[in-house]
Amino acid sequence: MRDATPDFAEFVAACGPKLLRVAWLLTGDPHQAEDLLQTALAKVWPRWDRIAPDRPEAYLRKVLVNCHISWWRRRWTGELPHSDLPEPPSAQADPFEGVVLGQVVAEAVRALPPRQRAVVVLRFFEDLSVEETAEVLRCTTGTVKSQTHRALAALRGKLPARELLSDGGHRERG
Amino acid sequence: MNGAEPADGTEEIEEELRVLLHRAVPVLAEPEDRMERVLERADRARRRRRATALGLGLTGGLVAAALAAAPALAPAPDHGAVGPAAPGPARTSPSPGAVTPRPSTATPSVPPSVSPAVSPPATGEFVRFLQIGGLAVTVPPGWYSDVAAFRDGNRLLGYLANQPFDVTAPCTQVMGVCTPIGPLAPDRAYLILRLVDVPDQAKAAAGGTTGPVDVALDKECFGHGGNRETVSSRNVDGPQVTVRIELTACAREPSEATLRQVRQVLDSLRFAG
């Protein structure tokens, strides 16, 4: 038994919230996000002792993302991305701006194919490098770059205007 | 993105996307029982894998029925050749001090229900697990048995091993159950007996023994140094009902002789009257 490995329950308590946010970005739904996270944790738990002690979060992230991709493959015929996105928020002050913003971003990201969605979440929410993203998705760095390029092209025009970010343009690394 | 970026505003878009993603994620509720749910899922997956390996159709209802039937199957404490009346730790042992009666503090989260008898290394005699309906097992020569069952929710477990039990060993607490044994030495194994099912009586009459089949090493076995795990099951006739007993064997570099003994244990399962 490895003493250096953080206890699984402690790990879940510490990393659960962050990974739940990743799961939400992948699924766009809080219930599915929790389901996805628990599925990934249940897969990781039996192998906990064999996971590199310094990288449990990276391992779980990999399981989480690949779980989601396999879910998506199974549910392919049942999942239809919304064709009509909610109107982007206006520049006027809106008490529900955060909610609408979240909805707009979630819908835009959800409309992406699963691997592009995963690339966007890993690179721009988790701040992984191209190489790290390729490792998680078990693909080449070239694939990550091309998927990133396509995802950004697809998102262009679907996300709120740049000036909306001016008042809160600080980066909240999660 | 790599090397010289094209001057098409990609960096700006990437930066905007970062900000948007971080601002977009709502406050998400964190269920307090997440860990419990995760363990339940892992437990279900584990049982599914085993059921697949064994061709068993385990259902919670049947297990519950089996558990309800178990007390009725248990013989009186003073009935039978071996059991509470049998000498316990004072009996001779090929390895002095090898058998340790488990104190009640052995598994804090899973209070053990210990029968009065803890068998020493055996010479082919049988012992009974009173909490598993009085299930009798012939213990191979040189093996140890802990005539105890751990009641953990729906689980009733009995243990046999060909190395001494060790209540001070680190507890992996897999699925809330702590196997009271230390690291396995080469050619050592421990066996877990559980009542898993009350099969359809017609099928039970026709059904016999399944396995042993090799299964993927689980965390508990791995944690004890095991490198081979098998699961087998057998329908055992009780006075009123036939029950299915599952035997999980975790071994480290088992010899053919040890594997034969595991099979002998499985074949010896019975309800002694």
Give a quick summary of the entry:
The complex is a heterodimer of chains A (174) and B (273). Chain A contains seven helices and no strands.
Question: What does it look like?
Answer:
The complex is a heterodimer of chains A (174) and B (273). Chain A has 174 residues and is mainly α. Helices cover 59% and strands 0% of the residues of chain A. Chain A is globular. The longest helix of chain B has 21 residues, at 34-54. In chain B, strand 2 (126-129) and strand 3 form a beta hairpin. Chain B is α+β, with helices and mostly antiparallel strands and 273 residues long. Classes of the chains: A mainly alpha (174), B alpha+beta (273). Chains A and B meet through helix 1, helix 2, helix 4, helix 5 and helix 7 of A and helix 1, helix 2 and helix 5 of B.
Structural class based on helices, strands and sheet pairing of chain B: alpha+beta
**Structural class of the helix and strand makeup of chain A?**
mainly alpha
List the helices and strands of chain A in order: HHHHHHH
Mean pLDDT of chain B: 66
Largest interface: A-B, 57 and 36 residues
Alpha carbon gyration radius of chain A:
17 Å
What count of helical segments of chain A does DSSP give? 7
The global form of chain A is globular
Widest sheet: strand ordering of chain B: 1-4-5-6-9-8-7
Low-confidence spans of chain B:
1-6, 55-121
Number of strands of chain B: 10
- The assembly state of the depicted protein chains is heterodimer
| Strand tally of chain A | 0
* N to C succession of SSEs of chain B: HHHEEEEEEHEHEEHE
Low-confidence blocks of residues of chain A: 1-5, 76-96, 163-174
